[in-house]
Specification:
Layout (H helix, E strand, L loop, with lengths): L7 E3 L4 E10 L3 E7 L5 E7 L6 H15 L11 E7 L2 E9 L3 E2 H6 L4 H20 L2 E2 L8 E4 L4 E4 L6 E2 L35 H17 L21 H8 L11 H26 L10 H4 L4 E7 L2 E6 L5 H8 L16 E3 L2 E5 L5 H54 L3
Antiparallel strand pairs: 1-2, 2-3, 3-4, 4-6, 5-6, 7-9, 8-11, 9-10, 12-13, 13-15, 14-15
Helix pairs in contact: 3-4, 3-6, 4-5, 6-9, 8-9
Length: 415
């Protein structure tokens, strides 16, 4: 039965008032506390009723490790002290307050962008620990804390970590009667007293978490639910998970830097494969002539005569390309040298200065000009479409070659 929680925690530099219990495990308990000026922090301590020498040494190991930490994705100890309970000194340490855990985010259906961000930060924090020769050995969603305003994930609870640091040679040898790790995420070698446990055990746990973040199920056996089955855009992670959760630790991808490189490589290869698939399925359109001035050629609708000019009203307004086709007609009948180059256009109106006696002839000639202009315009459009189709095919061919080259390089280049 738990003893009454402390109302205050005192250190050499600060006093912390207990607000609430925010976490509790087999041997530890975490409180949300606040200072006199209302700042929130978290305090972790051992449960006084179950303190023993083994748990004290584990706690001190964790305290020393976290005091030396400078990495943003690992919990850092800010302050520490002890309090008396039943005449025993119970150690505690102070850390930033993190309102949530990865487990709570998973229950609230964490979105895919948050998942990739979480994976990246977890790997960064774990890599920093491994660089210091420290294996966590108890990676699970409950031990990944989250601060939404900073969008920050941190690894906590190094209480059963294996420390190879000379300063921490007091690391406790696990007793066979104690289940130090949460066995849902423990690697197979952690279940065997005679097996060596190193950073590959952490790799195994993170692999399970990556798969569970997407599938909402813990991978068990060989027929577990794949990421591809629920998030096709991240299917490239399935191969990585498979390499991370292999039963034999020597078959797992290791160290963490190799995982990072593989994620980048897999993602690039996946994107390239997708683009190649799109290119191969892309059909170059057969550009038909769908121009309105080709489908509905310009015709003369009516005429008028105002202030010495013949006005010719068209059934629609020609565009600049059609007008160029009209005015550049080379062979035509004319009246005293007056022909297509002398006719002006304004919206759907054409006009030309002309004596009254020449009106009928010019109307007859103008209708012939229209036929020639319509034909020249339609021919130009067809040629333009042929060139456009040729350009698109060449562009697609080059794009396919570029993507195939990229895929080949990604596959064959070793880093």
């Amino acid at each position: 039965m738990s003893l009454k929680k402390p109302e205050f925690f005192e250190t050499a530099i600060e006093s912390y008032k207990t607000v609430e219990v925010i976490g509790e495990g087999g041997s530890g308990i975490v409180y949300r506390v606040e200072t006199d000026i209302g700042q929130d922090f978290a305090i972790k301590c051992l449960k006084p009723e179950i303190v023993n020498s083994v748990r004290l040494r584990r706690f001190h190991n964790e305290l020393r490790f976290s005091l030396k930490n400078t990495h943003r994705n690992i919990v850092t100890v800010l302050d520490y002290g002890s309090f008396l309970s039943s005449q025993r000194k119970i150690p505690f340490y102070v850390m930033d307050y993190y309102p949530s855990t990865l487990r709570e985010m998973m229950k609230a259906e964490i979105i895919e962008d948050q998942i990739t961000n979480a994976i990246s930060q977890i790997l960064d924090g774990l890599e920093a620990a491994h660089f210091r020769g420290t294996w966590h050995r108890d990676i699970k969603p409950e031990n990944i804390l989250y601060e939404s305003q900073k969008n920050l994930f941190v690894i906590s609870d190094f209480g059963i970590a294996h420390f190879s640091d000379e300063e921490l040679i007091t690391a406790v040898e696990t007793k066979s009667s104690e289940r130090l790790a949460n066995f849902k995420y423990a690697a197979p070698e952690q279940r065997n007293r005679d097996r060596v446990v190193d950073g590959r055990a952490d790799i195994y746990s993170v692999g399970l978490i990556i798969n569970e973040l997407f599938t909402r199920q813990l991978a068990q056996g060989t027929n577990y639910r794949t990421i591809k089955s629920v998030s096709p855009n991240y299917s490239y992670l399935d191969e990585l998970v498979d390499e991370m959760i292999r039963s034999d630790p020597m078959d797992r991808i290791y160290p963490i830097n190799e995982i990072k490189k593989k994620i980048i490589s897999f993602r690039k290869e996946y994107v390239t494969r997708q683009r190649l698939s799109e290119i191969n399925n892309e059909v170059i359109p057969t550009y038909g002539v769908d121009d309105p001035l080709v489908l509905n050629p310009i015709e003369l609708e009516s005429i008028d005569y105002l202030k010495g000019k013949l006005h010719l009203l068209l059934n629609q307004t020609p565009n600049r390309m059609w007008i160029n086709a009209f005015t550049s007609i080379t062979k035509y009948q004319n009246i005293r040298g007056m022909g297509p180059p002398n006719i002006s256009f304004e919206e759907n109106l054409a006009y030309i200065p002309l004596p009254e006696r020449d009106v009928q002839n010019m109307v007859n000639f103008f209708k012939d000009y229209l036929v020639k202009a319509n034909n020249r315009y339609a021919s130009s459009i067809r040629e333009e479409n042929i060139e456009k189709g040729k350009f698109d095919r060449e562009h697609l061919k080059k794009e396919r070659e570029d993507e195939e080259r990229r895929l080949r390089i990604i596959r064959n280049t070793k880093i």
